[in-house]
């Protein structure tokens, strides 16, 4: 009687453990696929941006609207750093990530389409 009930309990425990493993595996799988999708999306965004020919004039306007509050009207720096030699220190991909990903608060992330990002990039190159 005792053995059969304990083996039943064991069975239930085993099933529980298997369930937990399965759920853990599922969560891991979902996290991995989300990470992969996020990366893919970012890569296509960056590639698209790099393909385009931006306009300095449009980039200047975008900069004046979005960035001067922190980087200064001449991009010489205020709260944020001076951006004049930025294209020597960071490559284009790094600059795009800096603008769209918001990894370094207090600088916010900007949701801009590849054409506008390309304009900003060309503007930063022109400084
Ligand atoms: C709310 C303030 C703020 C705004 C608005 C802002 N930035 Fe920034 N930015 C910062 C700060 C602060 C840093 C430094 C972040 C760090 O590395 O810790 C920075 C860093 C950067 C860097 C990297 C500089 C370096 O030396 O590594 C680039 C490039 C840049 N910003 C571009 C832009 C552009 C382009 C815009 C407009 C679309 C913009 N920022 C808007 C605050 C701002």
| Alpha-carbon Rg, integer | 25 Å
What is the end-to-end distance? 85 Å
- Per the CATH scheme, the topology name of the largest domain is Cytochrome Bc1 Complex, Chain D, domain 2
- In total, how many domains does the architecture comprise? 2
Task: Provide the fold topology.
Blueprint: H1 2-51, H2 56-66, H3 68-71, H4 86-89, H5 92-101, H6 114-126
Kindly describe this structure.
- This protein has two domains: 1-51; 54-127, Cytochrome Bc1 Complex, Chain D, domain 2, CATH 1.10.760.10.
- Helices cover 72% and strands 0% of the residues.
- The chain is built from six helices and no strands.
- Helix 1 (2-51) packs across helix 6 and helix 2 (56-66) packs across helix 6 (114-126).
- It is elongated.
- It starts with a helix and ends with a helix.
- 17% of the residues are buried.
- The mean pLDDT is 92.
- The structure holds heme C.
- Heme C (HEC) binds next to helix 3 and helix 5.
């Amino acid at each position: 009687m005792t053995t059969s009930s304990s083996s039943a309990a064991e069975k239930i425990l085993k099933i529980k453990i298997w369930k937990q493993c399965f759920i853990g595996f599922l969560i891991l799988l979902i996290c991995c696929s989300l990470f992969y999708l996020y990366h893919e999306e970012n890569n296509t965004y960056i590639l698209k941006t790099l393909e385009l020919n931006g306009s300095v004039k449009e980039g200047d306007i975008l900069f004046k609207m979005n960035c001067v509050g922190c980087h200064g009207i001449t991009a010489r720096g205020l709260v944020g750093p001076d951006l004049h030699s930025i294209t020597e220190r960071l490559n284009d991909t790094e600059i795009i990530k800096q603008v769209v990903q918001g990894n370094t608060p207090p600088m916010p992330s900007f949701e801009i389409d590849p054409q506008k990002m390309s304009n900003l990039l060309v503007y930063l190159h022109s400084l």
